[in-house]
Amino acid sequence: MRRKIVAGNWKMNNDLAQTESLISGIRKKLKKTDVEVMIAPPFTNLFAAFEALRQSPIEVVAQNMHYADNGAYTGEISAEMLKSIGISTVILGHSERRAYFGEDDALLAKKVDSALKNQMTIIFCFGEELADRKSENHFKVVENQLKNALFHLPAEAWKNIILAYEPVWAIGTGETASPEQAQEMHYFIRETIAEKYTDKISDYVSILYGGSVKPNNAEEIFSQPDVDGGLIGGASLVAEDFIAIVKAL
Ligand code: 13P
What is the pTM of this model? Predict the structure, then answer.
């Protein structure tokens, strides 16, 4: 059985008070669900969020980390540090990290290795840009992103990998991939993994879709057979919207 997940990526939003208030809004409205729910607040609010959700099934996850365990890397946070405050899942490879902070596949492969060495679960993000899709290169781009950052891993590592396909042209733009476009790419991702590894691994890995998922389009996207949930940006900052999306899965 694949994990069904809705994760809220808060990005660089919400101070401490806003974090507490959004968490309390989500908790009040989200009574019972079969879906795994995660939120990813900024680093400064991770511990407060973790404490606030200690008795709750909602998991608190990090948006990024450095590949080293510690050392002279001013401004960075390691897997060990995240683990020490109770965080055991991290988002890696988000397109905003790739575009604005120069994170490339080689760096991401190092981060992936470090997270796994520290027994963390990874939500690995990837996806093509608009120009790639226009030139019909989107499958190749996605295949390379997977190969370069993940295909050095041994088969057993995949139990700790969650994939998040996020076409860059759909992030924060209000333009969502159509359910057919999402399904087509998720199916392709599964095939690519099956070719490199086994059918069992490709059947098991959860593949989330991200990019302008909203309450009014979530159900249609989530109904696709190879879509196992969503990574939600903007709509995860409003408790009612986030919960409506969780309920759509
Ligand atoms: P939006 O839902 O705001 O498009 O963001 C998606 C995203 O980047 C989640 O990681």
Answer: 0.97
